[in-house]
Amino acid sequence: MIKIDRYRCGCCGACVTVCPTEAIDMIGMWIEINEDKCNRCKACVNICPVGALEQEQ
Ligand code: SF4
Ligand code: SF4
């Protein structure tokens, strides 16, 4: 699963845009990842400019 560091996330929306399965939703200043939709491609981890996303086993 993808772990979100909410203290680092600046809600830039880059991960939402890059996600190929539309697994990330932004609700106000809060992102949520739908684990059922996530295919673990790590595109969001790689694009996040502040390193707020991390893949966990
Ligand atoms: S790992 Fe890939 S599929 Fe999962 S939330 Fe990130 S960009 Fe979307
Ligand atoms: S790319 Fe990083 S900083 Fe931007 S919304 Fe996603 S987790 Fe937050």
Automatic annotation (TrEMBL):
InterPro entries: 4Fe4S_Fe-S-bd, 4Fe4S_Fe_S_CS, Fe-S_Ferredoxin. Keywords: 4Fe-4S, Electron transport, Iron, Iron-sulfur, Metal-binding, Repeat, Transport. Signal peptide: none annotated. One of its GO terms (molecular function) is oxidoreductase activity. The keyword Repeat applies. The keyword Transcription does not apply. Residues 1-26, 29-57 form the 4Fe-4S ferredoxin-type domain. This is Ferredoxin-type protein NapF. The gene is napF.
